[in-house]
Design a protein that fits this description.
single chain, about 400 residues, alpha/beta, Aspartate Aminotransferase, domain 2, about 20% strand, globular
Length: about 400
């Protein structure tokens, strides 16, 4: 029997089934899932609307080249037009966030005729070669260099660094409204507006990476809406398929008009199942007022965690947007993550010292209480050991 080539440390949990905001292991133990596969199951595990749409499409046809037209594509385009980022006119589906970043790089270079790319300290845009080039942490990049050479990093949330890095040789600037892997760090409105203004001045493109933040998690359909800026390219993923592997790239007309046949291709990107999943997920988003619910329950959970943890010697900060929450510690979070899992709550790491919580929008007040109690208990225990 083959061994698994795994790039992740084992969590020691054998999943048996999942539903809504819960996962059960092979022993029958139930967990409140505030991990959700790095945010993928934001609409809940096995959301019945999405499962039904996938089953219907499976029984019809599951493979069709992108050059063909189909009702499932038209239906999804109609649904997406109701939630598309402001100013965008075209969309294409791909398989992952990293693949969406790769295409954004290509489209930016095609549209501008330039090569330079800008991202920011703390950024995470993926692990494929181009996306990895825009990911700031050297721990991810260095083993695989040389990567793309025309990349520079500005200082996140530092307006003073903008003019230094965004110059007239830049094709695109990539920014996350809330840095996920970088430590659940929200961008400031002043910073994002300054970036957008500078991008416009030099004739570059603004690419907003909403792979983790988008589709309602932060309390808005798109997290960048709060800044009052309009992006040339918006990237979505994770939650947009309700658990099905899919990403989306939205572009303005000016970018779409530069595209030529053969500029990109993907065997599985935009397959019929992906369109069905995205269409159904969008129906759920609209029907259930998901952003409003995520914003409301996110505030309750954040406030609850702040009340329980603020002032604790091992805690630096509790922060986030909607249901994207980080507890920054003064020590590595491994013990807290392990402790929480033992007590029935699944969380994950962000950056070096942040416990990240990405629960589904359907968590109940009881779930909020469980998450708060467990995370607080585990953080307090780890803090005492660290301080002692």
């Amino acid at each position: 029997m083959l061994n698994l080539l795994s790039f992740y440390a084992s969590r020691g949990l054998r999943v048996a089934r999942a539903s809504g905001q819960y996962i059960w292991d092979s022993s029958g133990k139930r967990y409140v899932d505030a991990h959700t596969g790095h945010g993928v199951a934001f609409l809940g595990h096995n959301n019945p609307v999405i499962v039904r749409a996938l089953n219907e499409q499976l029984s019809t046809f599951m493979t069709a080249p992108q050059g063909y037209s189909a009702d499932v594509v038209d239906e999804a385009l109609d649904m997406l037009s109701r939630v598309a980022p402001r100013g965008t006119t075209h969309v294409t589906l791909l398989n992952s966030g990293s693949e969406a970043v790769e295409l954004a790089i290509k489209l930016a270079r095609r549209a501008t005729g330039r090569k330079g790319l800008v991202a920011f300290t703390g950024s995470f845009h993926g692990r494929t070669a181009g996306a990895l080039s825009l990911t700031h942490n050297p721990r991810y990049r260095k083993p695989f260099e040389p990567l793309l050479s025309d990349v520079r990093f500005g200082r996140f949330n530092d307006v003073g660094s903008i003019d230094e890095v965004i110059t007239e040789d830049v094709a695109a600037v990539f920014i996350e409204p809330v840095q996920g892997e970088g430590g659940v760090r929200p961008a400031s409105t002043h910073f994002v507006r300054a970036v957008a203004n500078r991008v416009s001045e030099v004739g570059a493109l603004l690419v907003i990476d909403e792979v983790q933040t988008g589709f309602g998690r932060t309390g808005r359909v798109w997290a960048h809406e709060k800044f009052g800026v309009s992006a040339d390219i918006v990237l979505a993923g994770k939650a947009i398929g309700g658990g099905f592997p899919v990403s989306a790239l939205f572009v303005k007309e000016e970018v779409a008009s530069s595209v030529r046949p053969g500029d990109h291709g993907s065997t599985y990107g935009g397959n019929p199942l992906a369109w069905a999943a995205v269409s159904a997920a969008t129906k759920v988003l609209l029907r259930d007022s998901v952003p409003l619910r995520a914003g409301a329950v996110g505030r309750v959970l954040t406030d609850s965690l702040e009340e329980s943890l603020t002032g604790l010697i091992g805690v630096r900060d509790v922060r986030g947007e909607g249901l994207m929450i980080g507890v920054e510690l003064r020590f590595l979070p491994s013990d807290v993550i392990r402790c929480a899992q033992e007590r029935g709550v699944l969380v994950l790491r962000a950056g070096a010292t942040v416990v990240r919580l990405l629960p589904p929008y359907i968590i109940t007040p009881e779930d909020v209480g469980v998450i708060t109690d467990v995370v607080s208990e585990c953080v307090k225990g780890a803090s005492a050991r660290w301080a002692g």
